[in-house]
Please model this.
Amino acid sequence: MPLPFRSSYLTLSILAAFAGTATNAQVSFAQSTVADPNLTAAEPTSDKKGDTTTKQDSSNAAQGRAKKAEPAKSDSIQKVVIDGGRTDDDARRQSTAAKLIFGREELDRNGDTNLGEVLKRLPGVTIGGKPGRGGDIRMRGMGNGYTQILINGERAPRGFSMDSLSPDQVERIEVIRGAVAEYSTQAIAGTINIVLREDYKQKNIELKTSLSAEQNRLSPNVSLSIPGEIGSLSYALNATVYQNRQRDESTTNSVETAADGTTNLLQNETDETRRHTTGVFLTPRLSYKFENGDTLMFQPFITHSESASNGVSLVDQIYRAPSALEPVAYAVANNSGTADTTFFRSFGNWQHKFDDNAKLAVRFGGGYGKINNASVSNEFDTNGTPVAVVTVNSSIVDKTLNNGGKYTRPIGEGQTFAAGWELELGKRDETSTSLSNGKPQFQDSGDDLTASTRRFAMFVQDEADITPQFSAYAGLRWEGIKTTSTLAGMDVGNTSSVWSPIAHAVWRLPGDSKDQVRVSYATTYRAPSLNDLIAIPSISNLNSPTRPDRIGNPLLKPELSKGIDIAFEHYLSRAGLMSANFFIRDIGNLMRRTTQLVNEPTGPRWVSSPTNIGSATTKGIELEAKFQLQEFFPTGPAIDFRSNYSRFWSNVEDIQGGNNRIDQQPPYTANAGIDYRIKGIPLTLGGNLNITPGYFTQSTDTQLNMTGLKRQIDLYGLWKLNPDLQLRIAANNFRANNYVSSSDVSLGGVNRLDYVTNKTYTTFSIRLEMKI
Model:
């Protein structure tokens, strides 16, 4: 084993033992915070946890590390360098834990109106669903639930979609590949932290207006940011108002065969839906500095949206044998629905500095979420005779309270110790009514589901610059979750807890280069979602093996993972870097949904429920390169290159077959993009190609799923009319290829293949950005 790796391995072993004594290392906030270049030297900024530091502290920490790495000089004249703030790459390099930071440049580049479009271009990040519509956010190709999503360092509200969050409300995105003790370790794949706008010293009012068009359907968006200061009170008022008009169309071709190979069913179904959504985001931020140096920050996050939809489903049963499992379908169904969603989340932070440079930061906040959905489906047979009227009404109310704190104390030079706690209390009230011709579709229709959750955690961590070239971090976290629920007079409970030792180390190669090697180890987990533990049944109108009802399982256990990351990073003299990261995860108590035929009071029905099936292993390599062409050709054109490629492998031990991969994990994902600043005119042209290949997944021993190729091209042009006014034109999903998927189920003596084709569309947008 090469010396650097032996050294890193030895240090990690020592740190792991040290963590057993409840001492642990933190990612230094002074190193992890991206300073706003508009801030003065003593102006406070906010890190991802709501804790505050100063730009001066951050600069001193970076300068202190640099001084230790450089030999003493005998020059009698000191050179004073005034730095307006570190770049995203500087913050990434100085962080001991593997953290990728993407600021306003990345958020603004393509003029995106939803955050999912930004995230899909980041290294190792994929988005579920068809292009242009977004879906669940994934790291390292791992499916929903493996990636932890945070807003300002706290878990996002249940039911909140990141695709609905406007990039204009975001200050930066932090992609954390390894766990850190101060965050929940429900992050087997990693953590994505969305930091909301925090422009205390923004000098001008910013107004951004955009108009998007998809199939000639116009969607306006207006964003306004107003900064200000009144004595010791600083504030930034941010708001976005938007409308979306969308149309979706899909076709499902189904074939059902019996065990002897004879055909039971040939069926085609076409679904078309039109949707109109109006919404508003409000993210004001207030900060007050007391005379004794204490700071108090408060930032509420408010979003409200209303949508209405209508559509039609056409079912053509070309052939149906009497033995077919698929029920006799309607020929035409006219559908309409409404949705009303409100989320409120508050983030508060009080910070006190002690005389010995120690700090105590106390966080507090709460949340409220309400989702109301209503739909009506009028079904008719081939003769136009009414078959059924299906009405579904649901209401979900979520309430949360949270409190946390962190005590940070420097120990000598270049070492920081921290300890803290987190407490989150949540309560959900849910009611769902599903009627067919006025009769309940399931036994508990109309009953109230009440569920409560309690999450408590304690952590310690310690970060140290052991030598000028070597920094290390050790952390230990305990986290426990208790869930209780009541449905139809029955009480159900689930309790779990996890210890998570964590260690990171960075070895900076000596000399003038900026090369460095990272090694990390962490124990992480994936907790069952509330809907997987206990939920009101989700009823399928066309109940079949591939369209089953869905229920929960209160006996689920959390998935446990142990993982290692090894990375090499090479930073260029200009803005740019090249990196390679290898990871491996061993996962136990893997959760999967299985489908079986269940005798219900209304008759036999196919029902899907989650269960722990065994263990799995996943590994991969993540490559990234971004650079300016003039780094290598000084007289060349002003072109910036961005690219990343991630290759994944996985194996689920208790599922047979060659495609027994982690659910929804593609073989690879790739991005390539350029920005070309044309000489002589204030025009920048650019684009990005995003590719996720098609692949098969053996979900269970009886079900094989196929996910089709996703190839998305995004183009943009930016014209800077003057320093305070610029115009951006963009085309997202330029080729608009169809997105296909399939499900092949062999169950109950039959085989059922559903092949789904979804149309996708190009979205054109024009965006005017001005400073007033």
